[in-house]
């Protein structure tokens, strides 16, 4: 479907209730609707926004275009949660209803100020010639739970030396000051990030660019996030325009991190290489926040721009990832699913046994929504094949090569393959032998945690209705495995 500009910039309030209801009916009939992931009730979801734990509640917002599976006029949609696994629908939080955000309430973050929940975001506006104007805006939560925008942007102008690609503030509080980091594009069309500071969240002054070794690293950095984790500074961002290299950076846009030592006064960041956060096909624009126990939690958008997905024609696209806990252990960034996901477990099944070159189905595991833990207790196989969500016609395969320690996710037979995606495989080389896989399967997605948080591979899949089986086999040699599986509800 080709949407005209006019259609993409139609407001939700400009279509009739019947028309919206019809769209909703269409979406509800989709066989790919997720069960334990946040997904748009209609239309397109992209970045997670405003993630925060505030006065006993988690708040999760997301970028939303209500009217179809395209990047049109963006709103902020709002959920609250007590445990990050069950969500309460709070409806629209921010609409594009001022001159500063007339063409989209773009991404941003949440923070507490003066005892109230505040949101800072980028207002996207276009003039008659379709020139972009970015304004940085603040909204504050009212007694009744709604959000009221400040009358004027808190940052009206883009600093000199940069284009209007200036967005996605992440706010934090430190040394009695508020700081905000933004993704921005230099006039020479390279990406970077700038830091502003404020005493009162109304007046912001530019400090400068963050000083990294990545001077020529893509044409734009989106959705920056800067924080300390186990004594190390971590900077997460989503650069655009990075070329693939040795099985890395194969998606259209990247998201990853640098870590090391950051100085808030000089903005100098001494860091190691940029590392991708996820090795799968569908992951972008992640953001982090602290949970009630001060764990650093990350949620990403399980999707990417400029790709056609199987659900597009059903009037919806994308979802958020499950929340992951971040830690740094022995100098490595680890990502594990949050513990509260255990609340969704039912029907435990376990099995143990050998798999060899004949495909085995160790147990009558069947399902679409499950958590499957595979412990590899002995491995004499050259290559191990794990086939997930298998039917007669479909299978998503994980291939582990014992010698090279390469783990490959193969989507060739997964079902309807997303269009405009390079290759049907994603490969990552593990730091250690493969010991464990922990797979979260929802109706149309897989999130695969490897070796207790060493790697994550996230992907959407659109298999047929019967893709509920699981099989293991090897190229040659045998492997001894232990399976633990729970249905998730
Ligand atoms: C990232 C992004 C952000 C922007 C938002 C608009 O996916 O492009 O930079 O604020 O999406 O929806």
Automatic annotation (TrEMBL):
Keywords, A to Z, come to: Carbohydrate metabolism, Cytoplasm, Glycosidase, Hydrolase
Q: Does the keyword Kinase apply?
A: no
Residues covered by the Glycosyl hydrolase family 32 N-terminal domain: 37-337
Top EC class per UniProt? hydrolase
Record-annotated Glycosyl hydrolase family 32 C-terminal domain positions: 341-479
Catalyses: Hydrolysis of terminal non-reducing beta-D-fructofuranoside residues in beta-D-fructofuranosides
Q: What is its EC number?
A: 3.2.1.26
- Where found? Cytoplasm
Pfam families linked: Glyco_hydro_32C, Glyco_hydro_32N
- On whether DNA-binding is a keyword of this UniProt record, the answer is no
- GO MF: beta-fructofuranosidase activity
State the pathway, as annotated in the record. Answer: Glycan biosynthesis; sucrose metabolism
Lineage top rank: taxon = Bacteria
Task: Relate the protein's function as given in its record.
Answer: Enables the bacterium to metabolize sucrose as a sole carbon source.
What's this protein's family per the entry? Belongs to the glycosyl hydrolase 32 family.
User: Which PANTHER family did the record assign?
Assistant: BETA-FRUCTOSIDASE
Entry-linked NCBIfam families: scrB_fam
* Protein name (Swiss-Prot/TrEMBL): Sucrose-6-phosphate hydrolase
């Amino acid at each position: 479907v080709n949407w005209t500009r006019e259609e993409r910039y139609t407001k939700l309030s400009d279509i009739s209730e019947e028309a919206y209801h019809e769209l909703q009916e269409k979406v509800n009939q989709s066989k790919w609707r997720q069960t334990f992931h946040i997904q748009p009730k209609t239309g397109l979801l992209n970045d997670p926004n405003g993630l925060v734990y505030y006065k006993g509640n988690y708040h999760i917002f997301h970028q939303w275009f209500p009217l179809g599976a395209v990047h049109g006029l963006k709103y902020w949609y709002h959920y609250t949660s007590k445990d990050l696994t069950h969500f309460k629908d709070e409806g629209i939080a921010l609409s594009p209803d001022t001159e500063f955000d007339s063409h989209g309430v773009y991404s941003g973050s949440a923070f507490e100020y003066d005892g109230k929940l505040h949101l800072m975001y980028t207002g996207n506006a276009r003039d008659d010639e379709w020139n972009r104007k970015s304004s940085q805006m603040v909204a504050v939560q009212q007694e009744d739970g709604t959000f009221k925008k400040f009358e004027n942007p808190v940052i009206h102008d883009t600093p000199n030396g940069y284009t209007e690609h200036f967005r996605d503030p992440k706010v934090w509080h430190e040394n009695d000051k508020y700081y905000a980091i933004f993704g921005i594009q230099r006039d020479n069309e390279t990406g970077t990030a700038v830091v502003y500071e404020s005493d009162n969240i109304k007046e912001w002054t530019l400090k400068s660019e963050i000083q990294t070794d990545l001077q020529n690293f893509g044409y734009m950095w989106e959705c920056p996030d800067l924080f300390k984790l186990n004594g190390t500074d971590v900077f997460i961002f989503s650069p655009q325009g990075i070329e693939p290299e040795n099985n890395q950076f194969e998606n259209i846009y990247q998201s990853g991190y640098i870590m090391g030592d950051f100085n808030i006064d000089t903005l100098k960041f001494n860091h190691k290489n940029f590392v991708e956060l996820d090795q799968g096909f569908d992951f972008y624009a992640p953001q982090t926040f602290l949970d009630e126990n001060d764990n650093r939690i990350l949620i990403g958008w399980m999707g990417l721009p400029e790709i056609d997905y199987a659900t597009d024609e059903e009037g919806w696209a994308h979802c958020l990832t499950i929340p992951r806990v971040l830690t740094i252990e022995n100098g490595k960034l680890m990502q594990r699913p949050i513990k509260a996901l255990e609340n969704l477990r039912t029907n435990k099944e376990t099995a143990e046994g050998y798999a060899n070159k004949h495909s085995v189905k160790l147990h009558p595991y069947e399902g679409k929504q499950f958590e499957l833990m595979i412990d590899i207790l002995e491995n004499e196989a050259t290559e191990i094949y794990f086939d997930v969500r298998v039917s007669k016609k479909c299978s998503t395969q994980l291939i582990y090569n014992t010698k090279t320690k390469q783990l490959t996710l193969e989507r060739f037979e997964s079902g309807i393959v997303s269009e405009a995606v390079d290759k049907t495989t994603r490969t990552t080389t593990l730091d250690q032998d493969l010991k464990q896989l922990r797979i979260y399967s929802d109706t149309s997605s897989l999130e695969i945690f490897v070796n207790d948080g060493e790697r994550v591979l996230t992907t959407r899949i659109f298999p047929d209705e019967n893709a509920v089986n699981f099989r293991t086999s090897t190229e040659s040699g045998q492997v001894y495995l232990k399976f633990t599986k729970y249905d998730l509800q």
